UniProtKB/TrEMBL annotation, chains A, B:
Mg(2+) binds at residue 111. Pathway: Carbohydrate degradation; glycolysis; D-glyceraldehyde 3-phosphate and glycerone phosphate from D-glucose: step 3/4. It comes from Clostridium estertheticum. Diphosphate binds at residue 11. This is Pyrophosphate--fructose 6-phosphate 1-phosphotransferase. Catalyzes the phosphorylation of D-fructose 6-phosphate, the first committing step of glycolysis. Uses inorganic phosphate (PPi) as phosphoryl donor instead of ATP like common ATP-dependent phosphofructokinases (ATP-PFKs), which renders the reaction reversible, and can thus function both in glycolysis and gluconeogenesis. Consistently, PPi-PFK can replace the enzymes of both the forward (ATP-PFK) and reverse (fructose-bisphosphatase (FBPase)) reactions. Non-allosteric. The gene is pfp.
Length: 409, 409
């Protein structure tokens, strides 16, 4: 038997399932493997032998996942230790993979997951294990290096830009002066916040200021920016990344005793609340509304980008193809070929070049004042949000596939 | 000359413009009035003679408003005093209406706006003024009495239920136990929070608990509910109205020094944050995610209900028709005729029966434990979210109509 396994890790996106379906569907068509297993709840689930045979389930019951947001195979946040530190875990995983006659392990995830792929492939190589490890990118944050962009980003950008447009209209209705602050995700990088630049109305950008983690945030300069703009127009629209920080590196709105997740990342929140109070306390404006888009950015399939869904599917399909050509310790990237018309292709790159590395928003795409982005950001982002998926609607709501029984979720 | 004027007031909705277009389009077809004026920024704008002649603008430039969220004619929150208190304001308004030869004033708004319509119509009657006043309902809160429901509610309910579905999938991916709390608007009534009951997956309701302002909220009972549910399942989904309060009437999460708006309403926020802390501090669950849908509920046209848009258009059209039959001091309501298939009709009712009154969520639609709603709520809400509007898309985003130049917004 020659089987493969696919698992998902880290925060969900709207299109992470499309990549899993890309693997499964290309295997149905090309018979690369006898069985496609799913590791439920990522590497953590596999360690507990929480494994389901997708090839045993009627494809009609599964294929709806392509248009279902979030990690349909479950997820985990599990930082794999080096094998010098915890050899047992490696031994256990390879025992399980051997038991299921698994020749390829596909791991769909962000930086942390690619680190897992990297470590396993080195271990396999060192110990002559006949298992290949292939990474498939996934993150709304768009912060994986080398590739042009990551699956999940386009749909998040589309939701952000749509919300910006609609909230701009909502915020513009009263005659008194007011400020609207929309907070996006993006702990380390400003890709998500910057994507708000594609929201235009009557040909003009909707957003007045965009603040990114890549530029040190100065509360004084922020108040100066807003106050000046309020002398020119009644309604000022601000987009801010959750990851903005002072030049000393302190997160804005970070409270004393802020919690940290398992990777040591600070758990953020409340940036827009902090900025609201700042505006009110300095009497810069009387009316401030804030909106934290939060999880909506990673699960709003009803507002996803078809381009993003297609590319997520394509990286899964491509991963299956690469896997039978002996590739291991690689992940699948997306390369942009042209912008008008937009075309892209997939390619394989070593996970070592991606694992634990971050692609920052380019400094040259940020304006001189450090409070907005340039036309380059617009040109870069726009093609990635194109196309509206035809979601199946039942009783006025999206009909999503939730395999809680089959997957014992 | 025989002219009319239309204005919008209070918080926006996704479909409030459809009602204005209903008036304008039926006038184009039936020539009730020589000119349809718009009072920009409601009664406050009219007092400042901020008035635009919609009939002077090419209809092709305006008609896109039907599928544009928020108050395209601007809005205000202006509490009209009684004419005993401030006679001058009444004299001024009627002078302006006379100057523009306005015979009918259409005011699209919620409880406060219907109060304005009521006061003006009494004044007109008393002083033999030949101006009719007609109210058109609008509020996502769905809290106007007598009518079955209000335009704006269906689209808000659809956005809430869609977000519940998608966030349920997002929240279900990790294996550790967790609680998700989604906060809806609804200061006085639970209609919006209750609408989450229509979100089902594989035939099962997604939401475990719904807490409404109509039932006194007990933090102890809440923790008991959640803790008990966590013994039965890993992920608990809670929907809560911003207006929940203790049996003493104190809003949950209300901080000391909370601000109040001009109508004396407490400015809310932070209920879900309060409940999150409550769960964490009592060690009821380790992982709690919260989402405040906020303004998205009233402006997400991309996820609006076509039934809602059609009915909002219809109440506008109906208001124009009623106005030429000598009706004044009335507003247009919606009556449900049947549920399967869903049909409704418009009717006129006296604004005095609506002004400053509140329609609460029916106690008999709340379960015995006071922590969820019954099947009646499901049957009531479901028909109102049906149908997906065909929004014009340009560059991957909705193309909305924003007449900032024409309306001097």
């Amino acid at each position: 038997m020659k089987n493969c396994i696919v698992a998902q890790s880290g925060g969900p996106t709207s299109v992470i399932n499309a990549s899993a379906i890309g693997i499964l569907e290309s295997n149905i068509n090309s018979h690369y493997y006898d069985n496609v297993y799913a590791g439920i709840n990522g590497i953590q689930g596999i360690l507990n032998k929480h494994i389901v045979n997708l090839s045993d389930i009627n494809y009609d019951e599964v294929k709806g996942l392509k248009y279902t947001p979030s990690s349909g195979l479950g997820s985990c946040r599990y930082k794999l230790k080096s094998f010098e530190e915890n050899n047992e875990e490696y031994i256990k995983i390879f025992e399980i993979l051997e038991e299921y006659e698994i020749k390829t392990f596909f791991y769909i995830g962000g930086n942390d997951s690619q680190d897992t792929v990297h470590k396993f492939s080195i271990y396999a190589n060192k110990h002559n294990k006949d298992v290949k490890f292939i990474g498939i990118p996934k993150t709304i944050d768009n912060d994986l290096p080398i590739m042009d962009h990551t699956p999940g980003f386009g749909s998040a950008a589309k939701l952000i830009a749509t919300s910006v447009l609609e909230n701009f209209l909502d915020a513009s209705v009263y005659s008194p002066k007011g400020v609207f602050i929309l907070e996006t995700m993006g702990r380390d990088t400003g890709w998500l916040a910057a994507s708000a630049c594609i929201a235009t109305i009557n040909g003009n950008p909707v957003v007045d200021f965009i603040y990114l983690p890549e530029i040190a945030f100065s509360p004084d300069k922020f108040i100066e920016d807003v106050a000046k703009k309020l002398t020119q127009k009644n309604h000022v629209f601000v987009v801010v990344s959750e990851g903005i920080r002072t030049k000393e590196g302190k997160f804005i709105g970070e409270a004393e005793g802020t919690s940290h997740d398992k990777f040591g990342h600070t758990q953020l929140g409340g940036v827009c609340g902090f900025l609201k109070n700042l505006i009110l306390n300095t009497n810069t404006a009387e009316k401030v509304r804030v909106l934290e888009l939060s999880t909506l950015q990673r699960c709003s399939m009803h507002c996803a980008s078809q381009t993003d869904i297609d590319e997520a599917f394509e990286v899964g399909k491509s991963a299956a193809q690469y896997s039978i050509h002996g590739v291991s310790g690689n992940m699948i990237g997306i390369r942009r070929l042209s912008n008008a018309p937009y075309t892209s292709e997939t390619f394989a790159l070593e996970t070592s070049k991606v694992a634990n590395k971050i692609k920052y928003f380019p400094k040259e795409w940020i304006n001189e004042e450090g409070n907005n982005v340039t036309r380059d950001a617009y040109e870069y982002t726009l093609p990635l949000i194109m196309g509206e998926p035809k979601i199946t609607i039942e009783n006025g709501l999206p009909k999503y596939t939730f395999l809680d029984e089959a997957f014992k979720l």
